[in-house]
Design brief:
Layout lengths: L7 E2 L4 E4 L5 H9 L1 H4 L9 H8 L4 E8 L2 E10 L6 E8 L8 H15 L5 E4 L6 H9 L2 E7 L9 E6 L4
Parallel strand pairs: 5-6
Antiparallel strand pairs: 1-2, 2-3, 3-4, 4-5, 6-8, 7-8
């Protein structure tokens, strides 16, 4: 089971798989400097985004609030470590500060663990991104350790692991 049979419903958000019809929206979102700065400035063409949505090791989702798309959430899976994976997410600027991120992240994380898609789930916010660290913490992720820049990170980042609250 790659994706849930129906959209996932949190307390504030719905999470549904991203589809081809979402490509232009995702390209526009990533093109916004206030979104791109959290993704190392990466932007994507339509063709690149189509390829990103077709990746076998990443499941892409759209976060919706009040029936409107407000963010992107992806689950990635480690090939070398079966049962291990992680999440990445952003919300559009107008959706931030309302608890939507933690709600969406917790909803997807609980489904991934409950459905047996992963046994260990992590996130990797940059240490300078206090807002993201607070949001991931509210979603049930706890700090594990600070890490130095590497192939996937341009600055010091924080490894956080999912520990669902009862």
């Amino acid at each position: 089971m790659r994706f849930p049979d129906t959209p996932l419903t949190g307390g504030l958000t719905n999470i549904r798989p991203a589809i081809t019809d979402d490509v232009d929206l995702l390209v526009a979102w990533h093109g916004d400097p206030d979104v791109a700065r959290y993704w190392d400035g990466d932007t994507f063409t339509r063709g690149e985004m189509l390829l990103r949505l077709a990746r076998s090791d990443v499941d892409a989702y759209i976060v919706e609030a009040e029936g409107e798309p407000v963010g992107y959430l992806q689950a990635w899976f480690e090939e070398a470590g079966p049962g291990a994976g992680g999440l990445d997410m952003f919300l559009i600027p107008s959706a931030r500060g309302r608890g939507l991120g933690p709600d969406a992240a917790s909803t997807l994380a609980r489904w991934l663990v409950g459905a047996g898609r992963v046994q260990r789930l992590t996130v990797d916010p940059y240490l300078w991104n206090d807002r993201a660290i607070r949001a991931w913490t509210k979603a049930g992720f706890q700090p594990v350790e600070e890490r130095e820049p590497d192939d996937g990170h341009t600055v010091i980042w924080l490894l956080m692991a999912f520990h669902p609250k009862a």
